[in-house]
């Protein structure tokens, strides 16, 4: 129980009232909770007042200037600047969990989930229980279990501000002592991480995505930059191989000189090194089927580094970002040892087959850049033909469909176009949009059923060939016409490969 007057002190005067909890969503209200009713993108919390009251809400908190018409006998609290303050209010309610444990906020178009789990697994090895909030869910990370199974899903990469604070507090109670949170551009725009005090911000990269929400790349970038330019933060770890990263460092140097700037790069002499207080760069690297090996030059010394399980240059980049965050707090030898033991994140470059079977890789790539990176990184690993099975989501950024198609066509020998989450769109329209990006649309195979598409690629691929199944990664559903039915690329690939292996021995 908390006193509402204390929770809101300094913001507005309210009659004293004890609340058991806070919720932004009527479906999460329990008896004795205060219902925070905000204007959303499609509706208003007040539209769900009846449900909140029925569920036992004891007060309603709304914006001071809200003029919505509604009726309620519950105590009303009109809070100025409500949307900006929900996170801070929740932080007060949960006794400021991000002040009690160091928090790393990760933003960037690609690599957030990978880096957050890499950090958590490293913290575990370094003797401090790690936790995450992100696309795979929230919770303490047990390095002996599959992250996708142990975390609590929220439906968002960054959940709403009350859930963020509740999750941080829950983790702290569970024994988590270092946490990483994926911060999407939507989250920055909607104040979902307000109330968080970040020790470190990690920026991975900026490429096209989410232009259905942000009106331009400029706005998309600005939303991400807010994590560094507006939030409480001590250190910024920034990818120097990304043009936006360099711009961010320039802005940080001018606008927030008190923040330590750490740059990282997969190259020896990257641009922007002069903007950094500290750095982690690669002098030399070898990337092959056996993972990555690199000579690192850092402000903490020079080190030989190897990881035999993570493929591709972008994973080396992710590792450098993670190493940069960890070197701020832990001894270099221990950090490098922990990073060398890291394994792939569920649904990100997960390998199957190989040897007498084709190599099949399941990956979550669902942006033009991620698809291009994944395919171009994997293709040199095989001597044979490469196949790419992919689709595009419905009711989302339509412009990325032809771009994903072009990336797939340029980086594989044979495309198999199939369905992804078509949502409420006609899949035929999505396939047509995909084909507009192809130089040779007639050569691409179209197999609307995902299982058939993977089976088709497997039926022709031989040992030495590569099949990349892109787009779903760890997800366990297909969203079609508002109905989510069970689907797992990981399971399908495993079963189909087993069947193929069986056939080969008949
Ligand atoms: C467009 C958008 O971003 N919507 C997000 C936003 O919802 P909203 O505030 O606009 O909600 P709304 O539907 O207008 O409803 C208004 C209010 O009524 C409340 N409500 C609604 C229904 C109900 O039964 N009872 C109830 O009380 C809602 O809790 C809300 O407070 O705030 C919610 C809480 O934070 C989010 O869950 C929700 O994400 C929706 C589900 C979504 O799909 N968002 C995507 C675009 C998104 O945020 N993606 C990013 C990045 C993903 C990536 O990395 O690729 C993410 O961080 O997940
Ligand atoms: N640094 C990177 N640069 C480009 N692609 C990457 C990078 N890291 C991972 N990827 C690829 O991008 C896709 C998404 O990876 P990941 O889930 O780690 O990123 P994310 O930022 O969390 O994305 P999302 O929020 O959409 O889940 C995967 O295909 C992954 O293999």
From TrEMBL:
<feature type="binding site">
    <location>
        <begin position="108"/>
        <end position="114"/>
    </location>
    <ligand>
        <name>ATP</name>
    </ligand>
</feature>
<keyword id="KW-0131">Cell cycle</keyword>
<dbReference type="GO" id="GO:0009252">
    <property type="term" value="P:peptidoglycan biosynthetic process"/>
</dbReference>
<keyword id="KW-0132">Cell division</keyword>
<feature type="binding site">
    <location>
        <position position="24"/>
    </location>
    <ligand>
        <name>UDP-N-acetyl-alpha-D-muramoyl-L-alanyl-D-glutamate</name>
    </ligand>
</feature>
<dbReference type="InterPro" id="IPR004101">
    <property type="entry name" value="Mur_ligase_C"/>
</dbReference>
<comment type="function">
    <text>Catalyzes the addition of an amino acid to the nucleotide precursor UDP-N-acetylmuramoyl-L-alanyl-D-glutamate (UMAG) in the biosynthesis of bacterial cell-wall peptidoglycan.</text>
</comment>
<feature type="domain" description="Mur ligase central">
    <location>
        <begin position="106"/>
        <end position="325"/>
    </location>
</feature>
<comment type="similarity">
    <text>Belongs to the MurCDEF family. MurE subfamily.</text>
</comment>
<keyword id="KW-0573">Peptidoglycan synthesis</keyword>
<dbReference type="InterPro" id="IPR035911">
    <property type="entry name" value="MurE/MurF_N"/>
</dbReference>
<feature type="binding site">
    <location>
        <position position="26"/>
    </location>
    <ligand>
        <name>UDP-N-acetyl-alpha-D-muramoyl-L-alanyl-D-glutamate</name>
    </ligand>
</feature>
<feature type="binding site">
    <location>
        <position position="156"/>
    </location>
    <ligand>
        <name>UDP-N-acetyl-alpha-D-muramoyl-L-alanyl-D-glutamate</name>
    </ligand>
</feature>
<keyword id="KW-0547">Nucleotide-binding</keyword>
<dbReference type="GO" id="GO:0051301">
    <property type="term" value="P:cell division"/>
</dbReference>
<dbReference type="GO" id="GO:0005737">
    <property type="term" value="C:cytoplasm"/>
</dbReference>
<protein>
    <recommendedName>
        <fullName>UDP-N-acetylmuramyl-tripeptide synthetase</fullName>
        <ecNumber>6.3.2.-</ecNumber>
    </recommendedName>
</protein>
<dbReference type="InterPro" id="IPR036565">
    <property type="entry name" value="Mur-like_cat_sf"/>
</dbReference>
<dbReference type="Pfam" id="PF02875">
    <property type="entry name" value="Mur_ligase_C"/>
</dbReference>
<dbReference type="Pfam" id="PF01225">
    <property type="entry name" value="Mur_ligase"/>
</dbReference>
<feature type="binding site">
    <location>
        <position position="190"/>
    </location>
    <ligand>
        <name>UDP-N-acetyl-alpha-D-muramoyl-L-alanyl-D-glutamate</name>
    </ligand>
</feature>
<feature type="modified residue" description="N6-carboxylysine">
    <location>
        <position position="224"/>
    </location>
</feature>
<keyword id="KW-0133">Cell shape</keyword>
<comment type="pathway">
    <text>Cell wall biogenesis; peptidoglycan biosynthesis.</text>
</comment>
<dbReference type="Pfam" id="PF08245">
    <property type="entry name" value="Mur_ligase_M"/>
</dbReference>
<dbReference type="GO" id="GO:0071555">
    <property type="term" value="P:cell wall organization"/>
</dbReference>
<feature type="binding site">
    <location>
        <begin position="157"/>
        <end position="158"/>
    </location>
    <ligand>
        <name>UDP-N-acetyl-alpha-D-muramoyl-L-alanyl-D-glutamate</name>
    </ligand>
</feature>
<dbReference type="GO" id="GO:0016881">
    <property type="term" value="F:acid-amino acid ligase activity"/>
</dbReference>
<keyword id="KW-0460">Magnesium</keyword>
<keyword id="KW-0961">Cell wall biogenesis/degradation</keyword>
<dbReference type="GO" id="GO:0000287">
    <property type="term" value="F:magnesium ion binding"/>
</dbReference>
<keyword id="KW-0436">Ligase</keyword>
<keyword id="KW-0067">ATP-binding</keyword>
<dbReference type="InterPro" id="IPR000713">
    <property type="entry name" value="Mur_ligase_N"/>
</dbReference>
<feature type="domain" description="Mur ligase N-terminal catalytic">
    <location>
        <begin position="19"/>
        <end position="76"/>
    </location>
</feature>
<dbReference type="GO" id="GO:0008360">
    <property type="term" value="P:regulation of cell shape"/>
</dbReference>
<feature type="domain" description="Mur ligase C-terminal">
    <location>
        <begin position="347"/>
        <end position="473"/>
    </location>
</feature>
<dbReference type="InterPro" id="IPR013221">
    <property type="entry name" value="Mur_ligase_cen"/>
</dbReference>
<keyword id="KW-0963">Cytoplasm</keyword>
<feature type="binding site">
    <location>
        <position position="184"/>
    </location>
    <ligand>
        <name>UDP-N-acetyl-alpha-D-muramoyl-L-alanyl-D-glutamate</name>
    </ligand>
</feature>
<dbReference type="GO" id="GO:0005524">
    <property type="term" value="F:ATP binding"/>
</dbReference>
<dbReference type="InterPro" id="IPR036615">
    <property type="entry name" value="Mur_ligase_C_dom_sf"/>
</dbReference>
């Amino acid at each position: 129980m908390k006193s509402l007057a204390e929770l809101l002190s300094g913001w507005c005067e309210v009659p004293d009232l004890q609340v058991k909890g806070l919720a932004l969503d009527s479906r999460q209200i329990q008896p004795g909770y205060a219902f925070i009713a905000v204007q959303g993108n499609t509706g208003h919390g007040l539209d769900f007042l009846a449900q909140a009251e029925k569920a036992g809400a004891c007060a309603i908190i709304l914006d001071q200037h809200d003029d919505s018409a509604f009726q309620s006998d519950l105590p009303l609290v009109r809070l100025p600047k409500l949307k900006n303050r929900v996170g801070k209010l929740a932080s007060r309610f949960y006794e400021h969990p991000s002040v009690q444990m160091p928090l790393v906020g990760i933003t960037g178009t690609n690599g957030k989930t990978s880096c957050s789990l890499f950090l958590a697994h490293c913290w575990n090895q370094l003797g401090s229980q790690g936790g995450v909030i992100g696309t795979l869910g929230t919770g303490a990370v047990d390095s002996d279990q599959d992250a996708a199974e142990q975390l609590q899903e929220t439906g968002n990469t960054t959940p709403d501000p009350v859930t963020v604070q509740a999750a941080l507090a829950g983790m702290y109670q569970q024994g988590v002592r270092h946490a990483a949170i994926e911060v999407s551009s939507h989250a920055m725009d909607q104040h979902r991480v307000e109330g968080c005090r970040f020790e470190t911000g990690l920026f991975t990269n900026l490429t096209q995505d989410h232009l259905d929400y942000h009106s331009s790349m400029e706005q998309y970038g600005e939303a991400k930059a807010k994590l560094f330019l507006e939030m409480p933060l001590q250190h910024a770890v920034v990818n120097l191989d990304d043009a936006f990263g360099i711009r961010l460092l320039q802005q940080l140097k001018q606008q927030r000189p008190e923040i330590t700037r750490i740059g990282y790069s997969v190259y020896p002499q990257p641009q922007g090194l002069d903007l950094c207080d500290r750095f982690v760069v690669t002098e030399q690297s070898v990337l092959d089927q056996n993972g990555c090996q690199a000579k690192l030059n850092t402000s903490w010394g020079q080190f030989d580094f190897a990881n035999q399980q993570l493929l591709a240059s972008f994973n080396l980049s992710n590792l450098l970002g993670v190493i940069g965050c960890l070197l701020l707090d832990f001894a270099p030898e221990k950090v490098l040892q922990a990073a060398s033991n890291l394994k792939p994140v569920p649904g990100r470059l997960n390998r199957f087959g190989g040897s007498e079977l084709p190599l099949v890789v399941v990956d979550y790539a669902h942006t033009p850049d991620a698809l291009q990176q994944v395919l171009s990184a994997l293709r040199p690993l095989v001597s044979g033909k490469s196949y790419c099975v992919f689709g595009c989501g419905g009711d989302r950024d339509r412009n990325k469909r032809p771009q994903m198609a072009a990336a797939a066509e340029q980086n594989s020998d044979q495309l198999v176009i199939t369905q992804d989450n078509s949502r409420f769109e006609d899949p035929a329209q999505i396939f047509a949009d995909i084909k507009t990006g192809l130089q040779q649309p007639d050569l691409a195979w179209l197999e609307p059923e995902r299982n058939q598409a993977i089976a088709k690629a497997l039926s022709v691929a031989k040992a030495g060939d590569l099949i990349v199944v892109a787009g779903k990664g760890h997800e366990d559903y297909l969203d079609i016409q508002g109905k989510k039915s069970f689907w797992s690329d990981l399971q399908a690939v495993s079963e189909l490969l087993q069947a193929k292996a069986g056939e080969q021995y008949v």
